[in-house]
UniProtKB/TrEMBL annotation:
GO terms for cellular component: plasma membrane. InterPro entries: EGF, EGF-like_Ca-bd_dom, EGF-type_Asp/Asn_hydroxyl_site, EGF_Ca-bd_CS, Kinase-like_dom_sf, NOTCH1_EGF-like, Prot_kinase_dom, Protein_kinase_ATP_BS. Residues 425-707 form the Protein kinase domain. It is found in: Membrane. It comes from Ananas comosus. It is a single-pass type I membrane protein. This is Wall-associated receptor kinase 2. The chain crosses the membrane at residues 12-33, 355-377. One of its GO terms (molecular function) is calcium ion binding.
Length: 748
């Protein structure tokens, strides 16, 4: 007993294992098979696959495509109402249903007829239409005339088919051509039909071998005529396949695409195709894809390379999304699509050469990459430096303020703009060197001519306040002051951009006199007054006052009308405030420099007054601030003047061109004013405002009516003795000279 019991248990274990293995493999196949139903929905009903948009129950199907899975005749079958679905194809938009055969039988005993008439009624709003190409209305019998009657709202149609035969022998298997069998086509677009038999064709003559006639709408390919259909009751009560064309009703592709929520072709790489039977559309996967286009991501790439029939590639096949490409195997060339890949002749390079070229190319690539990185880093560094300079120079504050005060006419230039304007600060564009830097002539993009001042040095403290000071300077607006147009903060030292004044400097007018113009006392007084007013304005504009710091005749510019324009006023803030930097400055400005400043390094408004005093001296003496007397050493005009004043011999110093007995009184008053300005003690010098008032008074002194004609005399005398003032070609410049003299008198 024991062994037998053992045997039974081992058998059970083996069976159990087998069952488990089967279960596993079954699950595996389920998992691998691409699903055509919605997730969580049954894929099939009985033997019939149910692909979406079809589905069992409303939640598993698109509206109108719902089927029931009903148990009938021992298996599960899908039904729509009482119509059984045999199979469904979502690729072709077709479905097969089981359609009943209608019959008419003659009862010889009581000469009566029995009918079994089917009708098929699919609603016009349903997705289904009878396929007009695959189905035929078919009658079978030896004395049978059946009508197919179609009537719905859109169609009214009736057609018929008659099948007649003499005897059994005239029938042939497979031939449906009127003898015992008749077929006729049906129109498109219908989903309803009914069968009617004609009573007068009632088999009453042939009942002894063929008592019944049959009629059915059937898939032509699925119906093969058999003589037994006539001679026996083989068709009676049978169901035959009928092909339905289904589609997503009832919009065209164009209409359907507009409503994205109801659009059925949801898969990517899917396309819409208008239905060929009735209104509506179908979905297809695009070329190179397969699957169910009605499901999200239902269309999957076809791996053409995995399937030799899918591609015409005899070389190396490469699958891509939606396609594939084909290459010849390494070392060959030719047309891989056609199977014509040939061995390369010169491909037999030694390995060492290949290796060497490979390494060479890689090294080159690495080098290039490093170079690029280096260049990028350098660029970044430069940008950072510029940014740092900008911030250090108070650029942020300045930008904010400029933003607040619109229409200031003040601009922050970039370094590139200024480089472009001055041809990269080329030597040829240099207008002059000042104590604090170099001035370049520049032409901006909008063709404005400007003077660009590049400072030499700048201290840490000044750097921080640069932006603030720029803001103050930008607000200066006086007819006798050169306008500050903007600045640039991106560079190591700040750059200022001024309006360009065309007619040279006062220095040139007095000492070089390239214009060949006689400068009358009147004109000299006017220029002095204009300059003094400008300085007084600067001193009064802000608190603490703006100090020019570098007043000299070469910083007083003259415009087209010989109006004085004080320039370089921004320079004072660049002025060094410690001993070390001081030396560099003094060189440029000697002769004008306030002696007090030399001791304190502290610029005050009175420093400007002192320097202005020297300019006044230049105007009345026609001598430079530092000049050579004969062959002697350099003489300082101011100290020379002061000692001459003391010794009452200051008349010696006066400019011959204005020496005039009538004017002596005014000239000595100017000399007194200059003396006051040159006072060693800053405190005792007059204010700039007072200097301007005094000059104005002196100027008005002359404007007596009896003096009106003195100007013409002056011009006459100038013209009668031109050689003393200008070159030999004076006659040709006759009118020009005359005009210049008039201009310079009036300052217009
Ligand atoms: C659909 O059914 C017909 C007849 O029942 C059969 O011949 C055909 O192979 C079936 N097609 C599919 C895709 O199952
Ligand atoms: C679509 O069908 C509805 C009824 O289901 C009908 O009212 C409508 O006119 C049809 N539209 C088209 C374009 O056939
Ligand atoms: C059968 O058809 C014949 C004419 O072919 C007709 O005379 C006869 O009445 C029909 N029989 C029935 C039962 O309708
Ligand atoms: C294959 O070769 C034939 C000629 O032999 C040529 O006409 C055809 O274009 C080729 N096919 C491809 C895909 O290149």
């Amino acid at each position: 007993m024991e062994p037998e019991g053992n045997f039974v248990t081992t058998r059970i274990v083996i069976l159990w294992r087998l069952f488990l293995i089967r279960l596993l493999t079954l699950q595996l196949t389920f998992a691998l098979a691409p699903t055509n139903a919605l997730p969580g929905c049954p894929q099939r009903c009985g033997d019939v696959e149910i692909p979406y948009p079809f589905g069992i129950g409303p939640s598993c199907s698109r509206e109108g495509f719902t089927l029931n899975c009903t148990f009938s005749d021992g298996t599960y079958k899908p039904f729509l109402n009482n119509i059984e679905f045999l199979n469904i194809s979502f690729l072709l938009g077709q479905a097969r249903i089981a359609n009943g055969v209608s019959s008419q039988c003659y009862n010889s005993k009581n000469h009566s007829l029995t009918y079994n008439n089917w009708q098929m009624n699919l609603a016009a709003s349903s997705p289904y239409r009878f396929s007009s190409t695959l189905n035929k209305f078919t009658t079978v019998g030896c004395d049978t005339l059946a009508y197919i009657a179609i009537s719905d709202t859109a169609h009214r149609y009736r057609s018929g088919c008659v099948s007649v035969c003499e005897d059994k022998e005239s029938l042939t298997n497979g031939s449906c051509s009127g003898i015992g069998c008749c077929q006729t086509a049906i129109p498109k677009g219908i989903g309803y039909y009914a069968v009617r038999f004609d009573d007068n064709f009632n088999s009453s003559d042939t009942y002894w071998f063929s008592p019944c006639g049959y009629a059915v709408l059937v898939e032509e390919g699925a119906f093969e005529f058999s003589t037994s259909y006539v001679t026996t009751g083989a068709l009676r009560g049978r169901k035959l396949p009928l092909v339905l064309d289904w589609a997503v009703r009832n919009k065209t592709c164009r209409q359907a695409r507009r409503n994205t929520t109801s659009y059925a072709c949801v898969s990517d790489n899917s396309e819409c195709v208008d239905s060929g039977n009735g209104p509506g559309y179908l979905c297809n996967c695009s070329k190179g894809y397969q699957g169910n286009p009605y499901l999200p991501h239902g269309c999957r790439d076809i791996d053409e390379c995995a399937n030799k029939n899918g591609s015409s590639c005899s070389g190396v096949c490469h699958n891509t999304q939606g396609g594939y490409w084909c290459s010849c195997p390494p070392g060959t060339h030719g047309n891989p699509y056609n199977g014509t890949c040939y061995q390369n002749q010169n491909q037999k390079l030694p390995l060492a050469v290949k290796l060497a070229t490979g390494i060479g190319i890689s090294l080159l690539l690495i080098l290039i990459i490093f170079l690029c990185i280096h260049i990028i880093c350098e660029k970044r560094k430069l940008i950072k430096v510029k940014e740092k300079n900008f911030q250090e120079h108070g650029g942020k504050l300045l930008l904010e303020e400029i933003g607040k005060q619109q229409g200031l006419g003040f601009k922050i230039f970039t370094e590139e703009e200024l480089e472009q304007a001055t041809n990269k600060f080329h030597r040829n564009n240099i207008l002059g060197h000042g104590g604090y830097g170099t001035v370049y002539k520049g032409i901006l993009k909008d063709n404005r001519v400007v003077a660009i001042k590049k400072a030499k040095i700048i201290g840490e403290r000044q750097k921080k306040e640069f932006g603030k000071e720029m803001l103050i300077l930008s607000q200066i607006n006086h007819k006798n002051i050169v306008k500050l147009l903007g600045c640039c903060l991106q560079v190591e030292v700040p750059i200022l951009v001024y309006e360009y004044v065309s007619n040279g400097t006062l220095f040139q007018l007095i000492h070089r006199n390239s214009h060949g113009i006689h400068l009358s006392l009147e004109a000299r007084l006017r220029i002095a007054l204009e300059s003094a007013e400008a300085l007084a304005y600067l001193h009064s504009l802000a608190s603490p006052p703006i100090i020019h710091g570098d007043i000299k005749s070469s910083n007083i510019l003259l415009d087209d009308h010989f109006t004085a324009k004080v320039s370089d006023f921004g320079a004072s803030m660049l002025a060094p405030r410690d001993e070390a930097q001081f030396v560099t400055l003094v060189q440029g400005t000697c002769g004008y420099l306030d002696p007090e400043y030399l001791q304190t390094y502290q610029l005050t408004t009175k420093s400007d007054v002192y320097s202005f005093g020297v300019v006044l001296l230049e105007l009345i003496t026609g001598k430079k601030a530092l000049y050579f007397e004969g062959n002697e050493e350099e003489t300082n005009l101011s100290s020379n003047f002061l000692s001459a004043m003391k010794e009452n011999r200051f008349g010696e110093l006066l400019d011959d061109r204005i020496k005039n007995d009538e004017e002596m009184e005014r000239i000595s008053e100017i000399a007194q004013l200059a003396k006051a300005c040159l006072n060693v003690k800053g405190e005792e010098r007059p204010l700039m405002k007072e200097v301007a008032e005094e000059l104005d008074r002196l100027r008005k002194m002359k404007q007596h009516p009896w003096d009106q004609h003195s100007n013409p005399t002056e011009i006459e005398s100038l013209l009668s003795n031109p050689s003393s003032y200008c070159g030999a070609e004076i006659t040709s410049h006759y009118s020009l000279e005359k005009k210049a003299v008039l201009n310079i008198e009036s300052g217009r």
